[in-house]
From TrEMBL:
Span of domain AAA: 3-189
Pfam families to which the protein is assigned, alphabetical: AAA_31
Full protein name: Chromosome partitioning protein ParA/ Sporulation initiation inhibitor protein Soj
Domain of life: Bacteria
Lineage of the species this protein comes from: Bacteria, Bacillati, Bacillota, Bacilli, Lactobacillales
CDD domains, per database record: ParAB_family
Xref: InterPro entries: AAA_dom, DNA_Partitioning_ATPase, P-loop_NTPase
């Protein structure tokens, strides 16, 4: 059965997009069929994957359609793009910024918030059985984009970079998840908190980790710690070359 997972935090720059992309890539290499859905209008995940396809296959992808057009036509399968074996992308574009307006027009009543939040999930239901995993990347905001991702998800992973602002963002995100369950009866579980080190072997990083373990319970924090990896910064320029996750420590 397909698993739909959203990576989130209300603080930008926490490694949320990078981990969404790298984990999707790794799952595909392990033989799972994976769809990365980019629900962030900034389209950073889309840019990374298209650069990867260009570098690995010497192929520049040209689109005759956009995600917003596909949503308007009730068929997001038309925009899904193959990146490599087992790995597919639901790409975002600049016109996806109009998605909130689209939903307001489609569901104009003030009590239609649930329908707006659920709309993307209904579209994803039509294609999700084609995949083993669907990973959703979202903007670090309280928005219909985040609501749409969460309402479509089975699980949520909170990405916690070891800095104070990311910690506060994680707290706010968890509170928001609880509100979504209360207001919309959302049906997802919090799989855990994924620590991403800002700097390897730093006392500050260790302090934030200990603070998170005390606040969120150590059992809710993944034992896998994603270390700071300088080469990941190059991937935005050169695409994903061949990720090895030696720097992920269990």
């Amino acid at each position: 059965m397909v698993k739909v997972i959203t990576f989130g935090n209300f603080k930008g720059g926490t490694g949320k997009t990078t981990n969404s992309c790298m984990i999707s890539y790794r799952l595909a290499k392990q033989g799972y069929k994976v769809l990365l859905a980019d629900l962030d209008p900034q389209a950073n995940a889309t840019a990374l994957y298209l650069k990867t396809k260009q570098v690995q296959n010497n192929e520049v992808v040209k689109f005759d359609n956009t995600l917003m057009n596909a949503i308007s036509n009730d068929d997001i399968s038309t925009i899904v793009t193959k990146i490599r074996d087992n790995l597919y992308l639901l790409p975002s574009f600049a016109d996806f910024t109009s998605y909130p307006i689209f939903l307001e027009k489609k569901y104009p009543n003030t009590d239609d918030q649930y329908k707006r939040a659920k709309h993307f999930s209904n579209l994803l239901d039509k294609i999700k059985d084609d995949y083993d995993y669907i990973i959703i990347d979202t903007p670090p905001t309280v928005s219909v984009y985040t609501d749409s991702a969460l309402m479509a998800s089975d699980s949520v992973i909170i990405v916690l970079q070891t800095q104070e602002r990311s910690y506060v963002g994680a707290e706010a995100f968890i509170s928001y998840l609880q509100e979504l369950v209360s207001n919309y009866d959302a049906d997802f579980n919090i799989a855990g908190i994924l620590p991403v080190l800002l700097k390897n072997n730093s006392q500050v990083d260790q302090s934030i980790l200990e603070q998170a373990e005390a606040e969120f319970d150590k059992d809710n924090i993944f034992k896998n710690v994603v270390k700071n990896m300088e080469r990941l910064k190059r991937y935005d320029i050169i695409g994903i070359v061949d990720p090895d996750l030696k720097n992920t420590k269990t």
